[in-house]
């Protein structure tokens, strides 16, 4: 059985949520059908060396294609911005040629950006991986911008690399940011619904969004499913917590939702923690801290340390009482949560940070509704006995849902059209 994945994303290194899922698909197909039967069609720049399956490169769109698509498709409501920025006749021709040479039985198209290259008769027999519902992601970003006027939002995100340089400035100003989000929310919703009706199966990482899209698009039960990500974890997962009031924040600090969430946590919840545990300490692990964040952390003296990038997270996470995940906006799977659960480390999160993952008592992922509850949960986890109980629940949660065996069994069902 030949398998082809069509994407504009290089999944390696696996350092973002979307890459985790794509790399997991590759791992799964290589395991089930053999690496020689798995083909990755990469649109745009060739991927790096050491790819584990056969790679085919399809020429990406040029700036003229993007401008033409903006005028003829986005302006008329026929395509979303992200489809327009990755659509071109030469790309279509290249993908068609490669697929005719490979003759795969299974084709997996990465989001609506690549779904535009599947004709209706092909789509009816194949799979579209939709990631998150982008329409819902943009809706939440708009609500966050209204609720938190101080929050820095980035409508382009990691997709900016596919946008011509002269157009990227549109995402830098507040007014144009919000206008882009409103436009894309409407256009991409139409494309998501169209993909749901066209493809034999659509996959998302969020079970709630899968059910929402099924209702929205009016599709038959079973055609839209949720699948867990395959997260690579260290072999050693034994953690011995000793009772120190040590907490960890983990994430790339240049991402607006990480920077905003951490600053909000430091201003609102961290003082409450220090009032109860004066010797409490927060380790901030991640690259590219902003000057504003560094200035804020300096205000707390030795109680907050910005560690930067740490290649081996074992020691830092093993000695901590909990991982703090205080996001106020953003979407997509949170790698930091899976990393913590796999290491038996309890997580205290906002609802946004826990979205798409089972949470609450018995899961190791505790959700706080406000700063006071955040502080209460963090302080409670400094009890060695209580921490041990929640740690065990975290590990059991990971094993039952996100272990390699559990994920592969879910994929067996999801890809068996």
| Rg computed from alpha carbons, rounded to a whole number of angstroms | 22 Å
Q: What is the averaged pLDDT score?
A: 89
What name does CATH use for the topology of the largest domain?
Rossmann fold
Beta content:
5-15%
Helix segment count? 18
Give the end-to-end Cα distance, rounded to a whole number of Å: 13 Å
CATH class of the largest domain: Alpha Beta
Spatially, the strands of the biggest sheet line up as 3-2-1-4-5-6-7
Principal-axes geometry comes out as globular
CATH architecture of the largest domain: 3-Layer(aba) Sandwich
How many discrete domains? 2
Number of strands: 13
Question: Structural class given helices, strands, pairing?
Answer: alpha/beta
**Mind describing the biggest β-sheet?**
7 strands, parallel
Unreliable spans are none
Q: How helix-rich are the residues, as a percent range?
A: 40-55%
